[in-house]
Design a protein that fits this description.
single chain; catalytic activity; about 20% helix; 11 strands; 2 helices; two-stranded parallel sheet; three-stranded antiparallel beta sheet; alpha+beta; Endo/exonu/phosph_ase_sf
């Protein structure tokens, strides 16, 4: 996603439109999870152009996050003077795929300006082989909600 450089709004909107096209194409057949550095914040008090576009994108597609630590930052600027929450793992509100999403602490060994985000899911993927043996349950749904995750 484009950064907050001057004049980046059209590029940011274009990226969201591309993601929207993918969601629209697969929404009826797959469970949707959107993840990554979105360079916009969903925090209510933030309202720059990217934030507004991201919030509208999430409203349009009924996306939300399940952060347990909702105020923690995910990005720390290299100058040490600013930080923000711009990295997300989002799901459709009615899917219940994510049990929880946790923003990890900033570790000295992490060379990135972004901290890891960890999600626990309710997704179960059936396997016809378990340690080289055939599974006893042949009638298992391949995914917990019947849709394939993308």
């Amino acid at each position: 996603m484009p950064t907050m450089m001057t004049g980046s709004e059209p590029q940011y909107r274009e990226h969201l439109d591309k993601i929207s096209s993918i969601i629209d194409k697969y929404d009826n057949t797959h469970s949707i999870i959107v993840t990554g550095d979105l360079n916009g914040s969903l925090i209510a008090t933030r309202n720059n152009n990217h934030d507004k576009l991201l919030k509208e994108f999430c409203r349009k597609h009924h996306l939300n996050h399940t952060f347990e630590n909702t105020r923690d930052s995910t990005f720390y600027h290299h100058n040490g003077k600013s930080c923000s929450q711009i990295d997300y793992i989002l799901e459709k509100k009615d899917t219940d795929l994510l049990r929880s999403t946790i923003i990890e602490d900033q570790y000295h060994s992490n060379g990135s300006a972004h901290v890891p985000i960890r999600a626990k899911t309710n997704i179960s993927i059936a396997s016809d082989k378990i340690k080289g043996k055939k599974s006893k349950s042949q009638n298992q749904k391949p995914y917990s909600n019947g849709k394939k995750p993308i």
